Each structure stands twice: as C-alpha cells, then as structure tokens.
C-alpha cells in the first residue's frame, strides 16, 4: 500500500536507491543520472564537501551559505561550493552525545544588521543545556563579533547529553521561535516551570512577548509557546498559511509532524504512537482530550530532522511541498500539503545518506546536509 502511495514499486525504489548511492560516491562530473519522482525529475549533485557532521544551514543575501559543524565550527560556503576556513568568534560548545553547534539562522533584517542566531549545547554549573546566542557576521564574512547569550533553556541537566532540539525559525510577527528537546527526561516535556521539551517564543533581544500564552501565571515559564515535545528537530513557517510546523523525532515509531498552536500541549509522553526501544507501547493512548494531535505520523518511521517548505521556481511540481530530512531510514521525504493538512507522502533517495537538514536556496534548488564525519552538501538540480 505504501509503495502505491509513494508512486513506486519495490523494484523501482531499489533502482532509485542504487542510483543515489552511486551518485554520492561519484565525482561531480559523473553525477548526471536523472532520478524520476512523482512530480519532478532531478539530478543529485555534490555541491560542497569536507565538512564534519554538518547540522544547520542558512543562506545569506549574496547566495552563500552558513553551515554549522556539530563539533563546534561555523563555515561559509560560496556559490561555487568552496568551503571557507572555520569562522572566528564562534562560542564554545558542549560536544558530548548529540550536543555541539547545531542550528544557525539569519535575522530577517540581516542585510542591515548582519545579525545571526546560533543554537548550541552548553556546559554550565549543574550540567548541560540548550542555549541560544546571537552575534554579528563581520563585513568580510570570516568571523563573528558581539557574541551575546539570548536564552538558556534551564534548568541544566547533569546526566545525559541527548535531545537538545535546537531549531530556530522567525515568524511574520518578527519574533523568534526555538525548539528544545526534553533531554531524554520525559517528565520535563510536561513541566511548565521548565524550558525543556518546548517551543519557545521570544523577541529578537530575548524578551518575552506580552501575548505569550503563559505570561503572568505563577510557577510557569513565560517563554513557553507550546509544550509536550520530545525531540523537535524541525521547525518552519508555512509560507501560505503563516502557521508554524514542527517535525518531532519519536522513539521507536512516533515520528510526527505538528502544526504548533499557541499554548497547546502536544502530549509527550502522555500519548504517543511510539514504542519503547525494547518493544512495549509507551502509552496506551495515541490521542486524549486537551492534547493536540499530530497532522501526520510517519509509518514506517524516518527519524525526522530539519524541514523546509518548497516555494521555489526550479521545480514547479514541488510547489506547496514540505521537505523533511530523514536520518533513519536515511533519505528525504516530500509531503504534499493543502493549507495546514498533509495530503500525500513521497520518499526520495531512500538509503542514500543520513540527512540532517534540508534548505531551499535562492536559486530554487534543494540543498541537503549529509550527517557524517565526511559530510557533504548535496544539491538537487532539475533534469
């Protein structure tokens, strides 16, 4: 049934996967084998290489790209694919487990302010936490200046170095939205005096907007926009509806897409489609009163990370799609959307590589960050 929905037989999927694996290993000049999908035919091009575990990326107005490396480096990739030396002035990170230098986003008015935002794991007294910082990119584009701490997702946690979340998105309201993981301590996602397992909403300078849902409530953190999240690694605004979409990394199963609502509880771990890694269901319920249901659940699971809506011109057939970078099963997933609904799913490049982030470039092409010690940036070109 899934093969029919994906528009591919198992034989056809195997053939596309084999082609994709050959493309990843091939030199750039040889990467000309077309991949036929439901709504587009494209080629996979190795755009940049020599990166160590790339995690997040953002395009600058001149078409170049900032890319984070999880060990704690930030690099700039030119429009020709050349990778810069590590930029100076990058904050020190806590690099254990899933931590490090994670997402990067540029301010909406970057052309004037040159301000960027970084999400990272940080070591503090009492353990480690998710931290949001801002800085300015130097005129030469080779260093950060004016580094400033915007938010620490307290309290710190002494044990474990996983589930930091750490995606950044800017809304039409000019405010900044940040996802935080529950640090693999499930109860933290439901606690309202705790910033783990949440989507947080702030002004650019780190203040709490007056219309946040929990402002003025005693014992509740006013930064919280939504809660009950496990490990949200994808965050993007729907350009056609203005709503905030989130991709959540479930346990064994339970990977989901949510439309984030103001003040809503998304249920983890009270309800879940997932199972413990050793077998039993985490919750007997997949839905409950006063808990927001996901709009899409991935079956089989994909371990979703970064997401991006496609509104470019290079692939007209992909308009109004949401792309999801997949870690396991590795590849890229395209969701067809209708308003704030998912109406179709197509799995692309299955088995090619662990994809950590997906970006839509100013040229309308799709760029993929491959999560590997020998990381590369792949580009999907029209064929």
From TrEMBL:
Residues 51-379 form the Glucose/Sorbosone dehydrogenase domain. It comes from Roseomonas fluvialis. Keywords: Signal. Residues 1-30 form the signal peptide. This is Glucose/Sorbosone dehydrogenase domain-containing protein. It comes from the Bacteria.
